[in-house]
Automatic annotation (TrEMBL), chains A, B:
Keywords: Cytoplasm, DNA-binding, Metal-binding, Repressor, Transcription, Transcription regulation, Zinc
Name of the protein: Fur family transcriptional regulator
Family note: Belongs to the Fur family.
Listed Pfam families: FUR
The organism's place on the tree of life at top rank: Bacteria
Subunit structure: Homodimer.
First-listed, main subcellular location of the protein, grouped into a coarse class: cytoplasm
Organism: Nocardioides pini
Location of this chain's protein in the cell: Cytoplasm
Cross-referenced Gene3D superfamilies: 3.30.1490.190, Winged helix-like DNA-binding domain superfamily/Winged helix DNA-binding domain
DNA sequence: ACGCTGGTTGAGAACGATTGTCAAACTGGG
DNA sequence: CCCAGTTTGACAATCGTTCTCAACCAGCGT
């Protein structure tokens, strides 16, 4: 085989819209809803459809380039993230976010899961509180 | 004071509808959506409006008598629960649920939060996996 | 540079969960 | 039995998110 390109070739094209979303994500470090991100893009003079924002965020989330989690109302909120596994400490008033790591927690969850015979484990852990500035 | 009834008097009345929701909740031990609970009630011959199911579930959740969490689609799902603080190990295939407790995790989250100056802490922690029966 | 092919986009409709509205029905106390 | 405050239900209204589909654009071979 003459390097028959084994990769399925995702064919993700670098378009103006995707750049705009990436730029918007780079502009803040707390979690924002798709609507807010859409608004931010508009304020930056760009024009990107809301549906496209959703599509792009979903793609980025699949690629592991952004974190997506749900706030207490069940809305999806996103932000760019580091590539290591971590969790978040989020201010429920202003949204200020701190990435935290807890090896012990990771160990605990897999131990618990194994103990009950569960396989293929994943978990969600988010901490909400009021940050110093908002108290 | 002659016991001037300092409580705002919640006046939660035991109605047919509330009993029906409670009965439905007692009928299963995994998490179900409001719609599913509503359907279950119908199948049991009772007739309760969907809005009432939502209202009742919200009330029960406030009272701490049911757990409410969100599945991966962001939908709210409920089930009756024990009264101690705990988390869940949920099978992502069949929904089988195990309540788990992790004092260490509770301690860790509050420690992390305090360390960063966050107050009034709450947290969510759910573990998803494939149960023995579904493997 | 030109045209083709398939990924991408946008506007708006469609959707589905959840909440709000408001008059009618119900509950418990007096 | 009456009254005042709760609760309910049918349905409209929200709201976040996804779908639809024709127009558009990027990369590639010629």
């Amino acid at each position: 085989m003459t390097s028959t390109d084994p990769t399925p070739r995702p064919a993700v094209r670098p378009t103006r819209q995707r750049r705009a979303v990436a730029a918007a994500l780079a502009g803040f470090d707390d979690f924002r809803s798709a609507q807010e991100i859409h608004d931010l893009i508009s304020q930056q003079g760009e024009s990107v459809g809301l549906a496209t924002v959703y599509r792009t965020l979903a793609t980025l989330a699949d690629a592991g380039e952004v974190d997506m989690l749900r706030n207490e109302d069940g809305e999806a909120i996103w932000r760019s993230c580091s590539d290591t596994h971590h969790h978040h400490l989020v201010c429920r008033t202003c949204g200020a976010t701190v990435e935290v790591e807890g090896p012990a927690v990771e160990r605990w969850t897999s131990a618990i899961a194994t103990e009950h015979g569960y396989a293929d484990i994943s978990h969600t852990l988010e901490i909400f509180g009021t940050c110093p500035a908002c108290r």
